[in-house]
Design goal:
This protein is mostly beta strands. The protein has helices spanning 4-7, 81-89, 195-198, 240-251, and strands at 2-3, 11-14, 19-30, 35-44, 50-54, 58-61, 66-68, 74-76, 97-100, 105-114, 121-128, 131-137, 141-144, 148-151. Among the domains are: 2-89, SH3 type barrels, CATH 2.30.30.240; 96-151, PRC-barrel domain (SH3 type barrels, Roll). The termini are far apart.
């Protein structure tokens, strides 16, 4: 994208001769076609006639120069009556008022933007009370007249309802770590046993209910007497060994 004011003063270079054929002075715009059709140069013919180069003959628009194939691309303006008519009849775009359909003045045209590949108009740069730089796109332009550029009204945009963001799902649990397989030739160790499972279960202690103490039972009769202890039997006759042991203790 280029502005028309950027094209002014750029040299036009012939690729075949390597010669600068002139510098851009003005642009010729065909409003009905919506494009720049020719560039006028600062060099004139020996007869004092303005020379032009048709944009259809331009090879490229670079940062420093505009290139054409050869010097035959530059001709006197009288050879192309259409260009001469547009140059004489048409007023420069710069300075024209920019008005809305309701008669509101937005400013005036300070510049125009073009596509350097085909020189089609892309929009107009406005100069208003607030400054310069606002661009009106060509799609918004209704009419390009001799005195004013009329643009379509832009309806005020209604604020769109912002949908509520859905609740984020909880993140999935992390995957369990899988131990790497053992090297070849080694036995696979048994899986670790949880501490609760490895501890032997303690035997359950039965709960014995203690009967409640009640009142002492009344005796039905007199208490039974225990039998008397029987007297020890009398000692029997001593054998020879018992007699020898008894005598041995008596001597000592």
């Amino acid at each position: 994208m280029k502005r028309l004011q950027q094209l002014k003063g750029m040299p036009v270079l012939s690729l075949q001769e390597g010669e600068v054929l002139g510098r851009v002075r003005e642009t010729i715009v065909d409003v009905s076609a919506g494009r720049v059709v020719a560039l006028t140069l600062d060099r004139r013919t020996p007869a004092g006639e303005t020379q032009v180069v048709a944009t259809a003959n331009i090879r490229s628009v670079g940062k420093e120069a505009i290139t054409v194939e050869d010097r035959s691309s530059v001709v006197p303006i009288s050879r192309i009556p259409r260009f001469k008519e547009l140059a004489q009849r048409g007023k420069p775009l710069r300075g024209r008022a920019v008005m809305t359909e309701q008669g509101v003045r937005l400013g005036r045209v300070a510049d125009a933007t073009v596509d350097e590949a085909n020189f089609r108009l892309l929009g107009f740069v406005l100069q208003s009370f607030w400054g310069r730089g606002q661009v009106v796109p060509i799609e918004r332009v209704r009419t390009i007249g001799a005195d004013a550029v009329v643009v379509w009204e832009v309806p005020e945009a209604q604020p769109a309802a912002v949908p509520s963001a859905p609740e984020a799902a909880p993140p999935p649990p992390p995957p369990e770590a899988v131990p790497p397989p053992p090297p070849a030739g080694e036995e696979t160790p048994p899986p670790p046993v949880p501490e609760e499972a490895a501890r032997p279960a303690e035997p359950a202690i039965p709960l014995v209910s203690t009967p409640e103490a009640g009142p002492p039972a009344e005796s039905a009769g007199p208490a039974e007497s225990l039998p008397a202890e029987a007297p020890p039997p009398p000692p029997g006759p001593e054998n020879p060994w018992q007699r020898w042991i008894r005598r041995l203790f008596q001597r000592t």
